[in-house]
Write a structure and sequence with these properties.
By secondary structure, the protein is an alpha/beta fold. It contains twelve helices and eleven strands. The protein has one domain: Spore Coat Polysaccharide Biosynthesis Protein SpsA, Chain A. The termini are far apart.
C-alpha cells in the first residue's frame, strides 16, 4: 500500500466576507471606491487577500483552499479579478453577513463535504505579516499537533509587543516562558477588546493577541460546535446536505434569513473553552511582525515603523 494514503489531507479556509466598515472612509479617499479592505493594495503589488493566498499556498494547495466572500462583493470588478484564478467551486458566496460564526461554518461545511477527514487551517484575510515563512512554520506546527491528536483545536496567539485595547486576547494557562509539550498552552480564557487598563494587565500576565488563525480537524470542530450551539449547527447541517444539489442556493438563503448573528470567538470558542477546555490549546508566536489592519491609524503606524516611504505617502495623502 502506498504510504501516502495514510497522510491526512490538509485544507485551508480564507475568510474574506467582511465589510471593514471602519476603514471605508479611508479607502474611499485612497482609491476612490468602497472596496472592502481585504481587496485593497496598501503595500507592495498585492491586495491583502492576494498576500493571504500567496502565504497560505506555501502550505496548502489552491484546490484545497476554500474562500468565503460576500456575494455582493462581486459587483466590484477588482474583486472578480482577484478571485478569477481560484479553482471552480472553492469560492463560497455568503448571501448576507451574520457575523464570524456563520462566516466560518459556511466554508467549513463545504470543506467537510469534500474532505471529511481533513485537518483545516483557518486564515483571516486582513492581516499584515512580515515574516511570512516563520509564521507559516507555526501554522504547520499547529497542523502537525492536530494530525497527532485529532481532538485538539490549536489557535495561534501572537506575543504582544505592547498593550493593545483593539485586539482580542487569549490568556494561556501558566507562564508562556515555561517549556511545554510542542510549545502548546492550554487556554484559560478569551478577552475581547479589553480597555487599556485590562490590556496592560493582560500584557504583563502573558496574554497573547488572538490572530484567529487556527488548525483543527473539521469533524472535531463541528462536533464541538454541535454541543455548544446546537440550533446553529442544525441549520448548517441543512446546508451541508444540500451542497452539490439543485437546492443548494435556495437552502443556504433560507437558512441565512432565519439564523441570528453569532460571533465565532464569543459564541463558539468561549463556550468550548469553558465546557470542553481540554480540547483547546494556544501556540505562542514570537519574532513575527503581525498586525490586524482594522484601522487607518494602525496601517499608517505600521508603514511608519517599517519605513515604507512611498506607501506611507500614498496613505497619508488619502
Amino acid at each position: 500500500m502506498d504510504h501516502r494514503s495514510h497522510l491526512q489531507v490538509r485544507c485551508g479556509i480564507v475568510l474574506a466576507a467582511g465589510e471593514g466598515k471602519r476603514l471605508q472612509p479611508f479607502i474611499r479617499r485612497l482609491c476612490g471606491k468602497d472596496l472592502p479592505k481585504q481587496y485593497v493594495n496598501f503595500i507592495g503589488t498585492r491586495s491583502m487577500l492576494e498576500h493571504t493566498f500567496h502565504r497560505v499556498e506555501t502550505l496548502i494547495p489552491p484546490d484545497r483552499l476554500f474562500t468565503v466572500v460576500a456575494r455582493h462583493h462581486l459587483r466590484h470588478p477588482e474583486v472578480c479579478r482577484q478571485l478569477s484564478d481560484r479553482p471552480e467551486g472553492n469560492v463560497i458566496l455568503q448571501p448576507e453577513n451574520k457575523e464570524t460564526g456563520p462566516g466560518i461554518l459556511l466554508p467549513l461545511v463545504h470543506a467537510y463535504k469534500h474532505y471529511p477527514e481533513a485537518v483545516v487551517a483557518l486564515f483571516p484575510s486582513d492581516h499584515f505579516i512580515l515574516e511570512e515563512e516563520l509564521f507559516m512554520h507555526h501554522v504547520d506546527q499547529a497542523c502537525r499537533v492536530v494530525e497527532r491528536d485529532p481532538s485538539r483545536l490549536v489557535l495561534l496567539g501572537m506575543e504582544p509587543n505592547a498593550p493593545e485595547p483593539e485586539y482580542g486576547y487569549i490568556l494561556p494557562v501558566g507562564d508562556t516562558d515555561t517549556p511545554s509539550r510542542l510549545g502548546m498552552r492550554p487556554v484559560s480564557r478569551f478577552i475581547e477588546k479589553p480597555d487599556l487598563h485590562a490590556a496592560r494587565e493582560l500584557f504583563h500576565n502573558g496574554g497573547l493577541w488572538n490572530t484567529m488563525v487556527m488548525a483543527f480537524k473539521a469533524k472535531t470542530l463541528l462536533a464541538l460546535a454541535r454541543k455548544v450551539a446546537p440550533a446553529l449547527c442544525r441549520s448548517f447541517q441543512r446546508i451541508w446536505s444540500s451542497i452539490g444539489t439543485s437546492a443548494e442556493t435556495e437552502v443556504m438563503e433560507e437558512v441565512y434569513r432565519k439564523i441570528k448573528p453569532v460571533n465565532f470567538s464569543k459564541g463558539l470558542l468561549e463556550a468550548i473553552s469553558i465546557q470542553y477546555s481540554s480540547h483547546l490549546d494556544v501556540l505562542p508566536v514570537r519574532d513575527v511582525f503581525w498586525s490586524d489592519w482594522g484601522s487607518e491609524h494602525r496601517i499608517k503606524s505600521m508603514l511608519r515603523q517599517m519605513n515604507h516611504p512611498q506607501e506611507l505617502i500614498k496613505v497619508q495623502t488619502a
